[in-house]
Amino acid sequence: MLNNICLVGNLGGDPEMYYSSEKGEPIASFNLAFRLGKDKQGQDKTGWVKVTCFSKTAEIAEKYLHKGAKVALSGKIDYAQWEATDGSQRNAIQVIANGIEFIKTDGRGFDGQQADGTPI
């Protein structure tokens, strides 16, 4: 069974960086807003999904991405189920990103240059 997803959207906040407890592997996560289309009244509808990145992709996301940055990403859909501390069952769908392409950033992390190489 094939599990691939490609999304284009804007970060809802700066990536949060943390490290796995087992190997100290970098992990970054952020929420991505993407356009769903229009509702019956003609208003734009927005969808949100949590995105998680590992290793080098996580380090790149943390260094270069920020709230509002527009990206295209590819990855796979992951579904998790767990029991909360109150005993209720919880579930979540997220995207595990394996590739991120910058469409528009404010130039953070580019050592005095924007993503396109022009000075900030």
- CATH superfamily (homologous) name: Nucleic acid-binding proteins
The level of helicity is under 10%
Low-confidence stretches: 112-120
The gyration radius over C-alpha positions equals 16 Å
**Main sheet, how many strands, which sense, barrel?**
5 strands, mixed, barrel
**pLDDT average, as an integer?**
88
The proportion of strand residues reads: over 45%
One letter per element, helices H and strands E, the order comes to EEEEHEE
Report the CATH architecture.
Answer: Beta Barrel
When the domains are counted, the total is 1
Question: What is the count of helical runs?
Answer: 1
Structure description:
With 120 residues, the protein is mainly β. The protein is 8% helix and 54% strand. It has one domain (5-104): Nucleic acid-binding proteins (OB fold (Dihydrolipoamide Acetyltransferase, E2P)), CATH 2.40.50.140. It contains one helix and six strands. Strands 1-3-4-6-5 form a five-stranded mixed barrel. The longest helix is centred in the middle third of the chain and has 10 residues, at 55-64. The radius of gyration is 16 Å and the shape is globular. The protein starts with a strand and ends in a 16-residue tail after the last strand. Mean pLDDT is 88; it is low at 112-120.
